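Our preliminary data section would be incomplete without showing what the modeling component actually yields. Below, a chain of 284 amino acids is followed by its predicted structure, encoded as C-alpha coordinates that our downstream tools consume directly.
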Amino acid sequence: MSRRKRFGEILVEAGIIDEASLQKALDRQKGSGRRLGRVLEELGVVTEKDIAVTLSRQFGFKTVSGLAKYNFPSEVLALIDGSQALEKLIFPLKKQDKTLFLAMVNPLDMETLDNLAFRTGFKIVSCVTTPSEIQAAVDKFYLAAKQEQASDWWTILIVEDQELARAAAAAALRKHGYTVVEAENGAEGLKQAHQHKPHLIIADTIMPRMDGYEMFRALKSNPATAKIPVIAMSSKSSAEEEAQVLDMGYLDFIAKPINPVRLAARSRRALRLTYGEGDPPRRT
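Predicted structure:
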Protein backbone atom coordinates (compact mmCIF):
# COMPACT_ATOMS: atom_id res chain seq x y z
CA MET A 1 0.00 0.00 0.00
CA SER A 2 1.47 3.37 -0.99
CA ARG A 3 2.05 6.00 1.67
CA ARG A 4 -0.50 8.82 1.80
CA LYS A 5 1.22 12.06 0.87
CA ARG A 6 1.55 14.70 3.53
CA PHE A 7 -0.32 17.97 3.11
CA GLY A 8 2.90 19.94 2.60
CA GLU A 9 4.05 17.57 -0.13
CA ILE A 10 0.73 18.01 -1.90
CA LEU A 11 1.11 21.80 -1.89
CA VAL A 12 4.67 21.58 -3.24
CA GLU A 13 3.67 19.18 -6.04
CA ALA A 14 0.76 21.44 -6.94
CA GLY A 15 3.16 24.38 -7.28
CA ILE A 16 1.40 26.34 -4.52
CA ILE A 17 4.55 26.65 -2.38
CA ASP A 18 8.23 25.76 -2.78
CA GLU A 19 10.38 23.46 -0.65
CA ALA A 20 12.00 26.36 1.22
CA SER A 21 8.63 27.80 2.27
CA LEU A 22 7.45 24.37 3.37
CA GLN A 23 10.54 23.81 5.52
CA LYS A 24 10.18 27.25 7.11
CA ALA A 25 6.56 26.50 7.96
CA LEU A 26 7.41 23.05 9.36
CA ASP A 27 10.09 24.59 11.57
CA ARG A 28 7.63 27.16 12.92
CA GLN A 29 4.92 24.53 13.37
CA LYS A 30 7.14 22.15 15.33
CA GLY A 31 5.88 21.71 18.88
CA SER A 32 3.15 24.33 18.51
CA GLY A 33 0.18 22.03 17.91
CA ARG A 34 -1.06 24.30 15.09
CA ARG A 35 -2.22 23.10 11.69
CA LEU A 36 0.32 23.40 8.89
CA GLY A 37 -2.21 25.26 6.77
CA ARG A 38 -2.65 27.87 9.49
CA VAL A 39 1.12 28.38 9.77
CA LEU A 40 1.42 28.78 5.99
CA GLU A 41 -1.36 31.38 6.05
CA GLU A 42 0.44 33.31 8.79
CA LEU A 43 3.61 33.29 6.69
CA GLY A 44 1.63 34.69 3.78
CA VAL A 45 2.63 31.97 1.31
CA VAL A 46 -0.84 30.49 0.80
CA THR A 47 -4.45 31.60 1.15
CA GLU A 48 -7.30 29.58 2.58
CA LYS A 49 -8.69 29.28 -0.98
CA ASP A 50 -5.37 27.79 -2.18
CA ILE A 51 -5.66 25.09 0.47
CA ALA A 52 -9.27 24.26 -0.39
CA VAL A 53 -8.57 24.01 -4.12
CA THR A 54 -5.48 21.85 -3.58
CA LEU A 55 -7.31 19.39 -1.33
CA SER A 56 -10.17 19.21 -3.81
CA ARG A 57 -7.92 18.44 -6.76
CA GLN A 58 -5.71 15.98 -4.92
CA PHE A 59 -8.46 13.86 -3.37
CA GLY A 60 -11.43 14.49 -5.64
CA PHE A 61 -13.59 16.36 -3.14
CA LYS A 62 -16.26 18.74 -4.37
CA THR A 63 -15.76 22.38 -3.32
CA VAL A 64 -18.61 24.51 -2.00
CA SER A 65 -18.87 28.27 -1.51
CA GLY A 66 -21.41 30.98 -0.81
CA LEU A 67 -22.92 28.98 2.07
CA ALA A 68 -24.45 32.03 3.75
CA LYS A 69 -26.45 32.81 0.60
CA TYR A 70 -28.56 29.66 0.84
CA ASN A 71 -31.25 28.41 3.19
CA PHE A 72 -30.83 25.18 5.17
CA PRO A 73 -33.66 23.21 6.83
CA SER A 74 -33.73 23.34 10.63
CA GLU A 75 -33.56 19.54 10.84
CA VAL A 76 -30.25 19.61 8.96
CA LEU A 77 -28.80 22.39 11.10
CA ALA A 78 -29.85 20.52 14.23
CA LEU A 79 -27.50 17.66 13.38
CA ILE A 80 -24.51 19.79 14.41
CA ASP A 81 -24.19 22.21 17.32
CA GLY A 82 -23.05 25.73 16.45
CA SER A 83 -20.14 25.48 18.87
CA GLN A 84 -18.98 22.25 17.25
CA ALA A 85 -19.28 23.83 13.82
CA LEU A 86 -16.95 26.65 14.86
CA GLU A 87 -14.50 24.44 16.69
CA LYS A 88 -14.18 21.78 13.97
CA LEU A 89 -14.84 24.17 11.05
CA ILE A 90 -17.66 22.07 9.63
CA PHE A 91 -21.18 22.87 8.40
CA PRO A 92 -24.12 20.55 7.49
CA LEU A 93 -25.31 21.04 3.91
CA LYS A 94 -28.08 18.51 3.36
CA LYS A 95 -29.21 15.02 4.21
CA GLN A 96 -30.33 12.55 1.60
CA ASP A 97 -31.68 9.20 2.80
CA LYS A 98 -28.99 8.16 5.33
CA THR A 99 -26.25 10.39 3.92
CA LEU A 100 -25.17 13.75 5.35
CA PHE A 101 -23.30 16.12 3.05
CA LEU A 102 -20.85 18.12 5.13
CA ALA A 103 -18.76 21.20 4.31
CA MET A 104 -15.32 20.95 5.93
CA VAL A 105 -12.08 22.90 5.97
CA ASN A 106 -10.16 19.67 6.54
CA PRO A 107 -11.92 16.75 4.83
CA LEU A 108 -9.11 14.45 5.99
CA ASP A 109 -10.10 14.89 9.67
CA MET A 110 -11.16 11.29 10.15
CA GLU A 111 -11.73 11.64 13.90
CA THR A 112 -14.40 14.29 13.40
CA LEU A 113 -15.97 12.34 10.54
CA ASP A 114 -16.07 9.09 12.51
CA ASN A 115 -17.52 10.76 15.62
CA LEU A 116 -20.22 12.52 13.63
CA ALA A 117 -21.14 9.36 11.72
CA PHE A 118 -21.38 7.42 14.99
CA ARG A 119 -23.50 10.09 16.71
CA THR A 120 -25.94 10.72 13.85
CA GLY A 121 -26.03 7.30 12.17
CA PHE A 122 -25.45 8.98 8.81
CA LYS A 123 -22.84 8.22 6.16
CA ILE A 124 -20.79 11.42 5.79
CA VAL A 125 -19.85 12.83 2.39
CA SER A 126 -17.26 15.61 2.69
CA CYS A 127 -17.07 18.79 0.61
CA VAL A 128 -14.21 21.29 0.86
CA THR A 129 -14.64 24.93 1.83
CA THR A 130 -12.72 27.70 3.61
CA PRO A 131 -12.75 28.94 7.24
CA SER A 132 -14.35 32.21 6.10
CA GLU A 133 -17.23 30.32 4.51
CA ILE A 134 -17.83 28.29 7.67
CA GLN A 135 -17.68 31.39 9.88
CA ALA A 136 -20.16 33.28 7.70
CA ALA A 137 -22.60 30.34 7.63
CA VAL A 138 -22.38 29.75 11.38
CA ASP A 139 -22.91 33.45 12.06
CA LYS A 140 -26.03 33.52 9.92
CA PHE A 141 -27.69 30.21 10.77
CA TYR A 142 -26.60 29.53 14.36
CA LEU A 143 -25.71 32.86 15.94
CA ALA A 144 -27.65 35.65 14.19
CA ALA A 145 -30.71 35.53 16.46
CA LYS A 146 -28.60 35.49 19.60
CA GLN A 147 -26.51 38.43 18.37
CA GLU A 148 -29.63 40.48 17.59
CA GLN A 149 -30.90 39.96 21.13
CA ALA A 150 -27.73 40.53 23.13
CA SER A 151 -24.78 41.65 21.02
CA ASP A 152 -24.55 44.93 22.92
CA TRP A 153 -24.02 42.97 26.14
CA TRP A 154 -20.63 41.75 24.93
CA THR A 155 -17.82 44.26 25.40
CA ILE A 156 -14.28 43.47 24.22
CA LEU A 157 -11.21 45.58 24.98
CA ILE A 158 -8.46 45.62 22.32
CA VAL A 159 -5.05 46.74 23.60
CA GLU A 160 -2.57 47.23 20.75
CA ASP A 161 0.02 49.98 20.15
CA GLN A 162 0.01 49.66 16.34
CA GLU A 163 -2.90 51.78 15.14
CA LEU A 164 -3.61 49.90 11.90
CA ALA A 165 -3.54 46.49 13.60
CA ARG A 166 -5.78 47.78 16.40
CA ALA A 167 -8.26 49.29 13.96
CA ALA A 168 -8.40 46.08 11.89
CA ALA A 169 -9.02 43.92 14.95
CA ALA A 170 -11.70 46.29 16.25
CA ALA A 171 -13.45 46.39 12.87
CA ALA A 172 -13.46 42.59 12.63
CA LEU A 173 -15.10 42.27 16.05
CA ARG A 174 -17.61 45.09 15.51
CA LYS A 175 -18.68 43.31 12.32
CA HIS A 176 -19.82 40.44 14.53
CA GLY A 177 -21.89 42.68 16.80
CA TYR A 178 -19.48 43.26 19.69
CA THR A 179 -19.02 46.54 21.50
CA VAL A 180 -15.30 47.29 21.22
CA VAL A 181 -13.17 49.54 23.42
CA GLU A 182 -9.64 50.40 22.25
CA ALA A 183 -6.39 51.24 24.06
CA GLU A 184 -2.94 51.96 22.62
CA ASN A 185 -0.78 50.61 25.46
CA GLY A 186 -0.91 48.61 28.67
CA ALA A 187 -1.36 51.60 30.95
CA GLU A 188 -4.32 52.88 28.93
CA GLY A 189 -5.65 49.33 28.68
CA LEU A 190 -5.61 48.97 32.45
CA LYS A 191 -7.52 52.24 32.79
CA GLN A 192 -10.12 51.18 30.22
CA ALA A 193 -10.51 47.76 31.86
CA HIS A 194 -11.40 49.37 35.18
CA GLN A 195 -13.71 51.90 33.53
CA HIS A 196 -15.63 49.57 31.18
CA LYS A 197 -15.26 46.15 32.86
CA PRO A 198 -15.15 44.33 29.48
CA HIS A 199 -16.19 40.70 29.15
CA LEU A 200 -12.94 39.93 27.28
CA ILE A 201 -9.55 41.60 26.80
CA ILE A 202 -7.33 40.95 23.77
CA ALA A 203 -3.88 42.46 24.26
CA ASP A 204 -0.52 42.58 22.50
CA THR A 205 2.33 41.35 24.67
CA ILE A 206 4.91 43.96 23.56
CA MET A 207 3.89 47.63 23.96
CA PRO A 208 5.41 50.91 25.21
CA ARG A 209 4.86 52.36 28.71
CA MET A 210 3.33 49.15 30.10
CA ASP A 211 3.60 45.92 28.13
CA GLY A 212 0.96 43.21 27.96
CA TYR A 213 2.58 41.08 30.66
CA GLU A 214 2.66 43.94 33.17
CA MET A 215 -0.93 44.82 32.39
CA PHE A 216 -1.98 41.18 32.76
CA ARG A 217 -0.36 40.89 36.20
CA ALA A 218 -2.02 44.14 37.28
CA LEU A 219 -5.42 42.91 36.10
CA LYS A 220 -5.10 39.60 37.92
CA SER A 221 -3.94 41.23 41.16
CA ASN A 222 -7.10 43.36 41.42
CA PRO A 223 -10.32 41.57 42.47
CA ALA A 224 -12.35 43.94 40.27
CA THR A 225 -10.67 42.71 37.08
CA ALA A 226 -9.11 39.38 38.07
CA LYS A 227 -11.83 37.26 36.46
CA ILE A 228 -11.84 38.97 33.06
CA PRO A 229 -10.43 36.49 30.48
CA VAL A 230 -7.43 37.75 28.51
CA ILE A 231 -6.18 36.58 25.10
CA ALA A 232 -2.56 37.37 24.23
CA MET A 233 -1.52 38.58 20.78
CA SER A 234 2.11 38.32 19.72
CA SER A 235 4.27 38.46 16.60
CA LYS A 236 6.53 35.94 18.37
CA SER A 237 4.52 32.91 17.33
CA SER A 238 6.88 30.26 18.67
CA ALA A 239 5.76 27.31 20.78
CA GLU A 240 7.81 28.74 23.67
CA GLU A 241 5.99 32.07 23.52
CA GLU A 242 2.59 30.36 23.43
CA ALA A 243 3.52 28.09 26.33
CA GLN A 244 4.73 31.08 28.36
CA VAL A 245 1.50 33.07 28.09
CA LEU A 246 -0.70 30.05 28.75
CA ASP A 247 1.37 29.15 31.82
CA MET A 248 0.92 32.72 33.07
CA GLY A 249 -2.85 32.25 33.00
CA TYR A 250 -3.91 33.81 29.72
CA LEU A 251 -7.00 32.08 28.33
CA ASP A 252 -5.66 31.84 24.77
CA PHE A 253 -2.93 32.93 22.36
CA ILE A 254 -3.25 34.37 18.84
CA ALA A 255 -0.22 34.80 16.58
CA LYS A 256 0.16 37.99 14.57
CA PRO A 257 -0.62 39.08 11.92
CA ILE A 258 -4.21 38.59 13.01
CA ASN A 259 -6.63 36.73 10.75
CA PRO A 260 -10.14 38.29 11.18
CA VAL A 261 -11.93 34.94 10.98
CA ARG A 262 -9.63 33.40 13.58
CA LEU A 263 -9.95 36.45 15.85
CA ALA A 264 -13.76 36.28 15.82
CA ALA A 265 -13.79 32.52 16.40
CA ARG A 266 -11.30 32.68 19.28
CA SER A 267 -13.21 35.56 20.87
CA ARG A 268 -16.47 33.67 20.66
CA ARG A 269 -14.80 30.58 22.12
CA ALA A 270 -13.34 32.61 25.02
CA LEU A 271 -16.72 34.13 25.86
CA ARG A 272 -18.40 30.73 25.68
CA LEU A 273 -15.79 29.09 27.92
CA THR A 274 -16.06 31.88 30.48
CA TYR A 275 -19.78 32.57 30.52
CA GLY A 276 -21.35 29.42 29.09
CA GLU A 277 -23.81 29.25 26.24
CA GLY A 278 -26.11 31.89 27.72
CA ASP A 279 -25.65 35.65 27.76
CA PRO A 280 -23.19 37.09 30.30
CA PRO A 281 -24.36 39.26 33.15
CA ARG A 282 -24.24 42.97 32.44
CA ARG A 283 -21.12 44.61 33.89
CA THR A 284 -21.71 47.40 36.38
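The longest strand covers residues 90-96. DSSP finds 13 helices and nine strands in the chain. Preliminary results of this kind motivate Aim 1 of the renewal.
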